[in-house]
Each structure stands twice: as structure tokens, then as C-alpha cells.
Amino acid sequence: MSPLKLACAQVNVAVGAIEQNVDRCYSAIEEARSHGVDVLLFPELTLTGYPPEDLLLQPQFVDANDAALTKVAQYVGDDIVVVIGCVRRGDDLHNSVAVLFDHRVQMTYDKQILPNYTVFDECRYFRPGEPQPQLLEVNGVPVGLAICEDAWSPQGAIAQASAMGAEVVLVANASPYEMGRQAARERLMEVRASDASVAILYCNLVGGQDELVFDGGSFFVDALGSVQTRAARFAEDLLVVDFLGEEARYRKRLLDPRGGLRTDVKPAGRRTITTRPAHAGPVRSIGLSRPMEVPIEGFDPEEVTRAMVLGTRDYVRKNHSPGVLVAVSGGIDSALVAALAVEALGPSVVQLVALPSRYSSPGSLTDATALAKNLGCELVTLPIEAAHRTLSEILAREIPVEGLVDENLQSRIRGMLMMALSNSSGRLVLTTGNKSELAVGYSTLYGDTAGGFAVIKDLYKTQVYAIAAHLNRQRIVIPTEILTKPPSAELRPDQLDTDTLPDYSVLDEVLVSLIDRDQSVAQLVVRGFDSEMVARVDALIRRNEYKRRQSPVGVRLSSKAFGKDRRMPISSGYE
């Protein structure tokens, strides 16, 4: 068997920007050609971007997808096979990959298993494909095809391809980031490869799309179930692999009963292709044995930081905003959002705004000034005292201006001023609420929740501190005074967060149990938590769903982010 040079193009495309996505595909194809690649694999739904959601209900959008597929097919000659994610329109819509060669579409494969959980709604849009895929043969090597969820099933497309005689399976993916996900992907594909005795080239999408971040991390698994090489994470990359034949696979099938795996699949056909390489020469491997950048188990500050930076950068870029605004209070949350914004976009397009009130401590403005200096950002100061006094006088004619009324009034004045600055400059306001605050409603609707993107909405407060410490590991980005002072909203004299909430180390453990693990109050009480405190936190979570529904989207980092992952009714009698 002659060697087959495989590659996956881990590209960053934008939902709906079909013409630009086509141009990105052209560039990747040319790069692959320069390496003498025989087969180039793109991610799931490359042409439309993922997830296209209700754009798929518009016939003209599907027409644009069809036209783009024709353009890319015409661009591909007889020197390379391109496998690209697209929408296929038959009697219904299918999530598909098309095999392009010699200026036309040679065959298609339709995704069989449509995910409909957490952030996925594919059953809303697509019809599943039949489990009778064709086998692709390139230069004598039988190649199978799969799309994302298909590969997760033990009886799915990988097992089917193996039963049909495939030596390698190409898996196109749009698998969004969450903490620990990369390790889970690799472990599962190692099992699938070992069980089916086939190699797997796993190509994942990269880039931010609204609250989702696709982290790339494409990889190649040999038929023995061992990851051999990986692409970069959180960045575009071309991963090239020399597939050298399967003597090891033959030996494995003699020694391992799983090697004889068979299904009742009846192949729909076999398409044979022989490429004419544009660049002849000795076979070489590119990027083999590239090490993992970090261990990927649970919460890793470096990995999570990169996810938030990519998500923020792409949200701002893909929505064509000239920059961002961050209201800085001298506290840890706004300092972290500002630092991440600078990492994502650069200091020149990040403007910090201090909005001191009569209750702001002198240190808060000093700390905000030090932060701006460390980040190299412009700091604008707009005191809110005059507006606070005037509005208080107006309200006092009808109601007492005290307690929550007075506290929320200040926050809403700040929100109004931030949105006015946004209207003037076109810059996007980044909100600064964390997951702990959003969970219990420790925020002001139309105040600190006013904005366009919530960078840290899926970070608990204790994780906020961990990320801030991580950013400070080489140089002081966030002033030490911000990291060490007690958290405070500074909306009344001597206010501390602990006046209202449990200590964050305790609160976050309760929140993780109630939200991420779906545990009950009774289960936490059995574990030793104070029953009154847990019941109060549980009630706050339920009571503040309406606020979260009206908060901006932000980077999804966990499997239970507020929004698409966790969907609770606002009006509910369940206790």
C-alpha cells in the first residue's frame, strides 16, 4: 500500500459569512497542496459556520450554501481530495460532508446521529442520514467518513466503516469547548480506534461563535488506539499526517477479538479516486508527536484563559465592533475582564471607565488607575454623584430612596452612562458579572448587567481569583491591592459581599453542587452544609432566572453554563 498524506484544516469560519468562508477554504487548500497532501479534511459545516441555527429555515441561505459548495468543488482539481462540511438539501436538510475531486462533488455522507442536548439542537433542523455510508478509496486506501456525534456511538460510523474495510476514518467536528473536554475527546477516539482497528483523523473547528468557543485541538489516532499528533488549540492550524499503511492493524486483528468487529451495515457503494500529486517527492511527516500544551483535566487556568480570550476576540471581530468599554470599579471582576480584553484585542481599542460614587473608597480609583497603567489602556473618569443626587431628589417625591432602591439606582446610572459611551463610539460594553453573582442575582438588572458581552459569566468567583493569579504569574497585570482586598459592590457605606452572601469559598461549592451537579438541598445538608444557608442560596438561584434571561451572552466554559446548557422556567411552582 502506498503512503497516503492526510491533513485537516482547523479553520476559524463565521456563521453566515459564506463567501468569506469559501475564501478561507481556498487558502487552506493551497496550503495543503504545498505540502503534497492527498486528502484534506475540513470541520463540520465549514461553509455555513456552526451552529447556523434558524438561518437554516431561510431557503436563500441554503441556496448560498449550495452555490458555495459548487464553487469550492470547481476549485478542487485532480491533485487533492477535499472533504468539507456543508448542508445537503434532499427531501429534507442533512448535516453532511461532501467529497470534492476533479472539479465536482464525487459523493456525500450525511450525519447519522443528531445531538439534541446541552447546546445542540440539530433535530430541529436536520434529518439523520441512513447507516449505509459509501466507502471512499483514495490511492488504494479505503477511507471511511463520520461527523462528530457519529463517532461517539460504539455502533456508529466508525464501526460501520471498519466493517466495510476502511483503514482510516475522517471525522469532521464542531465540538465546543468546555473544561476537560479535550481529554474526553481523545480518550473516546482512542477507544473507538482500538475497538474498530482503524486509524482516525479528528478535525475540529476553532473560533468563537456567540457564547460558544471551538478550541480546535484536532488530532490523529492510530489503529492501536494511540494519539500520535495534535494540532494547536485555540488557533488555526493545518495538521498533516503520513498514513503509512496498516501492518499493525492486521497483527492486532489476529490478537484482539475486537479486531473482528462487524455490524449489519450494507455499504451503499464505493468511490475510487486516484490523485495526481501536485508536489512529488519523498514522504515526510509534519507536526508528528507535537506535545499537549497543558494537562487537560478539569479547571486549568491557562486553558480557560485562552478560551475566554478567543471567545472575546471573535465576538468583537465577527460583530465588527471597533473596540470595547469596561467599567472598572477597582474590584477583581472588572480588573480581570479588562485584562482579558487587552489580551484579546490589544490596549489601543480597550477603554476603561471609572464611575465613582459617594460610596467609592479612595483606593478604588487608585487601583483602577494602576490597572489602566499596567494594561496600557486609556482610563476615563465619570463621577456619578450629580446624577445620583438629582435622581434621588426626583424619586424622593414618591418613595424613600434607601436600601436596594438607592443601591440599584447607582448601578443603573453607571449602566446608562456606559451605554451612552457605547452609542457614541460604537464600542461594545463588556459586562463584569461572574457566575456566582449571576446565580444568586447579586447584580442589577439594567445596571451592571447592561452591555453586549459577558466575558466571565461562566466563571465562579473562586475561579476568577485563580485566573487573575495566573495572569500575574510573570508580571503584575492586576494590582496586588485588587487581589487582596475584600470584595465589595461599594453601594453603601462599608459594604462587603459577605454582608449578603456566604464566603465565596463556601458559596461556590454550594453553587457547583446545585447547578453543575443538579444536587438537592437535602444532599448538601447530609454533606454537612448549614440547611438554612443552602435553602436560601437555592431560593436565590430559582428567583433570579428572570435576570439571567435578560443578561448578555458570554463565553461558555462548563457543561452547565447559564443559557443553552441550563434552561429553567422563570415561572415555576416547583420547590
Q: Please give the count of helices.
A: 17
Structural class: alpha/beta
Radius of gyration of CA atoms, rounded to a whole number: 27 Å
* N-end to C-end Cα span: 65 Å
Task: Round the mean pLDDT to the nearest integer and report it.
Answer: 89
Percent strand: 15-25%
Instruction: Tell me about the largest β-sheet.
Output: 7 strands, mixed
Would you count the extended β strands for me? 20
The 3D shape can be described as elongated
Strand order of the largest sheet: 13-12-9-8-7-6-15
The low-confidence parts are 259-263, 279-297
What's the helical proportion of residues?
Answer: 25-40%
Describe this structure in words.
The relative contact order is 0.09. The protein contains 17 helices and 20 strands. With 575 residues, it is of the alpha/beta class. The termini are far apart. The protein has a 7-stranded mixed β-sheet, covered by helices on one side.
SSE layout and pairing:
Blueprint: E1 4-10, H1 18-34, E2 39-41, H2 59-75, E3 81-89, E4 93-101, E5 104-110, E6 135-138, E7 141-147, H3 157-163, E8 168-173, H4 181-196, E9 199-204, E10 206-209, E11 212-215, E12 219-221, E13 227-230, E14 237-243, H5 247-255, E15 270-273, H6 301-318, E16 324-327, H7 332-345, E17 350-354, H8 362-375, E18 378-381, H9 385-396, H10 403-425, E19 428-431, H11 435-440, E20 453-454, H12 461-471, H13 480-484, H14 504-516, H15 521-526, H16 531-543, H17 545-549
Parallel strand pairs: 1-2, 2-3, 6-15, 7-8, 8-9, 16-17, 16-19, 17-18, 19-20
Antiparallel strand pairs: 1-14, 3-4, 4-5, 6-7, 9-12, 10-11, 12-13
Helix pairs in contact: 1-2, 3-4, 6-7, 6-12, 7-12, 9-10
